[in-house]
Amino acid sequence: MTDRTPPHSTDSTDHTDRDAARELDRNSNRGANDDRDRNHNCGREREREQTRPTERATDGGIGTDPETDTGAETEADASAPTRTETSNGQQAAEPVEHVPIADPSLSDTVLERVEAVLEDGMLADGPEVRAFEGEFSGFCRTQHAVATSNGTTALHAALESFGVEEGDAVVTSPFSFVASANAIRLAGATPVFADIDPETYTLDPADVERVLDDRDDIVGLLPVHLYGLPAQMPELCAIANEHDLFVLEDACQAHGATVDGKRVGGLGDAACFSFYPTKNMTTGEGGVVTTDRDDIADGVRRYVNHGRDPGEGGYDHTELGHNYRLTSLAAAIGRVQLQRLLEFNDARQANAAYYDEHLEAVPLETPTVPDGYGHVYHQYTVRTESPDERDALAESLAARNVDSSVYYDPPIHRQPAYESVSTAAASFPDAEHAAETVLSLPVHPSLSTQERRTVVEAVHDHYNL
Ligand SMILES: Cc1ncc(COP(=O)(O)O)c(C=O)c1O
């Protein structure tokens, strides 16, 4: 791995950022307190509108202080009147009839910014995208951010820029969304899996070493910050340094997560994020590569634009590439979402703290957060004692209209699309066991206090507590 000096401000406290983000948010949202909470996934908004007597209202970004929300319920909470506030400050109607697993929060500011782009007429690549890139690299404290059309294309373009090619192998986790390994295959290389740490569900550094001992074609590591918890980056970067490998973080689920106060995105040689609607922040579809390395940033800029030389401005295509560009409309959404990211993460953390506390007496393993790690709870994932128990719990929750989801079963090496991949034949017992026993509960920032209480009650009911 390449040694890097932090390029940006020495002020690395989350707190300062949070204040700045809130200030930005206050300014950009001034006067806009009519948040339209939409769910762009699976038409769920319509379903919710039908089941709820009153609409949600008010933008949670303004005037709420998530730091004062410890996630703990009070007596007053328990006897709350017919409306209750979300941990994101929004109003929700009671009774809760359905608790969705994801619920993206978009404000009127998004509409204004998108409208401005529409009026401007520069809909594809343009200044809005450059501005978003600048703001995202500032957030990650990296030298560069290059926007892409989604997280998968970010991973693919980054791997191409590292020069990965046929005959090369890259180590990744078998317990991830399939895109992590697909990107390696799209670059022409072979994904090599190492098992996960059963406590954190992220790549086990000891198993990575075992794999490295067996092969001499490995050129890089692609650790995944699963569910919003960073992989064990200090250990993995030390291994990479020793073996002269690049480290590409798959941070698609971990916007704002930290290790020892340092944000993901700047922990390896490069990192990739997704802005899919369920993620900690969204642009609809979208992605970004962050890096401190000029060569990687330049390579990604060229690759996402058909290998076009960015310096010349003409039609000099110096290498093969793709059209993996982000649109200005998506960038406009992303700029507003980025301003609210810390607020969203605070709300996710408050919801997670609430679950930690209220699921203590239940025979479930709640998420492990190692010392020094900042988890941003893209998912709040519990673990049951057996596969049957997982399925039974999911059924009980569904019967109470509480969504839950399994991320991911089967693991990547057991996917039909991986039958032809030689390295997928191996066994990774911890990943396989996790795939059979994990279950994610709704933890998104739009969750109301009543909704998260409903989730806990549904789990308690299942265990007859
Ligand atoms: C871990 C991980 N990697 C990669 C991706 C791919 O991102 P996208 O869906 O934006 O292509 C995702 C998205 O779900 C993901 O969760």
TrEMBL record:
Q: Where is this region: Disordered?
A: 1-106
What name does UniProt use for this protein? DegT/DnrJ/EryC1/StrS aminotransferase
The GO annotation for biological process reads: polysaccharide biosynthetic process
Acidic residues bias locations: 66-76
Ranges of compositional bias, category Basic and acidic residues: 1-58
Q: Name one GO molecular function term.
A: transaminase activity
Please indicate if the UniProt record lists Transferase as a keyword: yes
Would you say which domain of life the source belongs to?
Answer: Archaea
